[in-house]
Amino acid sequence: MNIAIDRQTSLPSRARLADFYDRYFEALDDLRLEEWPEFFVDDCLFEVIPRENWQAGYKLCTIQADSKGMLVDRVQGILKTQVYAPRAFRRFYSGLRATGRNNNGFIETRQNVIVAQTLIDGPSMIHLCGVAYDLLEEAGDGFLFRERIFVIDSEMIPNSFIFPA
Amino acid sequence: MDAMVKRWDSEGSTAVPYWVYTDEENYRTEMNRIWYGPHWLYAGLDAEIPEPGSWKTTTLGERPVIVARSQDGTISVVENRCSHRGVKICLARSGKDESFTCPYHQWSYALDGALQGIPFRRGIKGKGGMPKDFDPKEHGLPRLKVEVVNGVIWASFDKETPSFREYIGEKMWVYYTRIFSGRKLRIIGYNRQLVPSNWKLMMENIKDPYHAALLHVFFATFGLFRPDQKNALEMDETGRHACLMSIMPAAGAGENQDIAASLPGFDASLQLADRRLIETVKELTGDETVGGSTIFPSVILLQQVNSMQTRQIVPKGPGSFELMWTHFGFEDDDESMRARRIRHANLFGPAGFVSADDSEVMQMAQEGYAHAPEERSSIMAMGGAGVQSEDHMATESAIRGMYRYYREVMGL
User: Fold this and answer.
1) Which of A68, B168, B179, B252 is deepest in the core (most CB within 10 A)?
2) Residue A55 neighbours by CB under 8 Å, 6+ apart
3) Alpha-carbon gap: A2 to the closest alpha carbon of chain B (Å)
4) Domain spans of chain B, in order of start
């Protein structure tokens, strides 16, 4: 009972959150894309949305998945169907903080994210830059994403956007 | 260094020299003869500026413009730079105002571009000010010719451009009104990407049914487009505009499987984990499941599954262009249709399952043209040398149509 009350009111430590996010970004940076959906609950919501849409109340995303199955489909699409030049994609986050709990007791977090892309024969470039507003559910020692909403400042995406962030 | 020899020796349009995609001087001629010539350019959807005073900024060719709705509801397109010292007036993407004021010396303009205020025009305490013969009527923001056609705003720099309907021709009008029937539109949002390739490659891409089932493995794999499905490729009389329509047969229709299975990359074992990604509700008239129109030179109007978009092309020199995606639905869409359109938008845009392929390949093409562009030509001979409507996908007829017109207008 006491633990349940604690979970409603107290927020997880920065170290516990950082451990979760480090593992998440590591899986993506290492291109272990099959593991990506496993960081989410089944009825999750994942969005990469341009800031101009976010601010205007327009719902269009650059990538959207409103189920874990759709994350699986994104991975299948990337690995088995899409054509793109080889590249490295690396994510850097800062300012990670739990900002509160919502009415269902899920943990709200935010963090800034920069995604660097390196194409063959090219310099490493900032591909995307933005802020993520997430909703986490406690799962064992760690967490699962209920929601990850990555609002990208990027007004003009340098050509294609292949791997998620 | 020797100057590059720009030759286009072959007749017709089955071969397009690589320099046509890379040459700076040729690009400048395109700007003047095509983008600022007697052609209609896509400037937006009227649903983007719904109320009197609503405005948006965009770029037509290389020129920034303001698209605004005046108090009486009429829509104007004016150049976005102050008549005084050339300062860009509106910097935001959109807004709502009673007038426009230049930030530098506060010259102000009506929503239709008329110059209506000059601070200290008569000077200060009798000193200075503008000359007495300075006429504000002659210094409004330059206005473009405008037509609003079933919810789409079209603008032209050339006052001699014929009416929009005449410009696209009766055949294209049929496809245009399939989506833009006059039903009120609702904006869903934007995606913007900078594609490092020549703008004409984007036009070619949507005029090219040949690539659809080959490059886009996603289509064949998940049953959205197959090489043997019923196609209709139509052009206007000039050949500059085209529409590719297609009917996807019911899933699993026996004989189709063989051709799909012969495609490189096809894996019959792949299944979608969540079919809502492509599950479509029929909403337009006719049996066609895909319709993509290229309105030369500036925009693609495309419908597939329950996604509808305009893709506006903004050239940025011979080697790159901005692609501005505006997704829309209809004002009377219910909640489930709104959600479906956003889900289906996963196929399109910079991260689209069937669009990122295109922007990647366009970059690869531009890289191919970059070196010794005078030596080789792009081959567009699929389906012969003619420019005619076709009912199959093994043709580059509509690309030839565009270059036939291009050679005329460019004098090449």
Assistant:
1) B168
2) none
3) 40
4) 41-147, 169-410
pLDDT at A95 over 50: yes
Query: Using one digit for the tens of pLDDT, what is the confidence trace for A18-37?
Result: 999 999 999 999 999 999 99
Query: Which B-chain residues 305-364 have CB contacts (< 8 A) with chain A?
Result: 322, 327, 338-339, 342-343, 345-346, 349-351, 353, 356-357, 359-361, 363-364
Chain-chain contact of B274 with A67 (C-beta, under 8 angstroms): yes
Domain ranges of chain A: 2-152
Segment 163-202 of chain B within 8 Å of chain A by CB: 187-196
**Architecture of domain B169-410 in this structure:** Alpha-Beta Complex (3.90)
Is residue A129 very low, low, confident or very high in pLDDT (cuts 50, 70, 90)? very high
> Which CATH fold would you assign to the domain B41-147?
Rieske Iron-sulfur Protein (2.102.10)
pLDDT, tens digit, 9 for 90 and up, residues B353-401 = 999 999 999 999 999 999 999 999 999 999 999 999 999 889 999 999 9
| Residue A77 to residue B345, Cβ atoms within 8 A | no
ipTM: 0.94
Handedness of CA B71, B77, B83, B87 (dihedral sign): positive
Please tell me the total number of residues recorded for chain A in this structure. 165
Q: Which residues in chain B have their CB less than 8 angstroms from residue A160's CB?
A: 193, 350-351, 356, 359-360
Neighbours of A143 (CB within 10 A): 25
Q: What are B149-191's pLDDT values in tens digits?
A: 999 999 999 999 999 999 999 999 999 999 999 999 999 999 9
Q: Within an 8 Å CB–CB cutoff, is residue B25 touching chain A?
A: no
Q: Is A72 on the interface with B (CB under 8 A)?
A: yes
Q: Which of A45, A89, A160, A161 to mutate to test the interface with B (most CBs of B within 10 A)?
A: A160
Residue B266 — pLDDT band, cuts 50, 70, 90?
confident
Question: What is the pTM (predicted TM-score) of this model?
Answer: 0.95
Instruction: State the pLDDT confidence band at A146, using cuts at 50, 70 and 90.
Output: very high
Query: What are the contacts of B143-148 at 24+ separation with CB within 8 A?
Result: B143/B76, B143/B77, B143/B78, B143/B112, B143/B113, B144/B60, B144/B65, B144/B77, B144/B78, B144/B79, B146/B43, B146/B75, B146/B76, B146/B77, B147/B40, B148/B46, B148/B75
Q: How far is B354 from chain A (nearest CA, A)?
A: 8
| A160 → chain B, closest CA residue | B350
- Range A2-152 has CATH code 3.10.450.50: yes
User: And the tokens for A151?
Assistant: 């609002």
- Determine the 3-state secondary structure of A81 from DSSP: helix
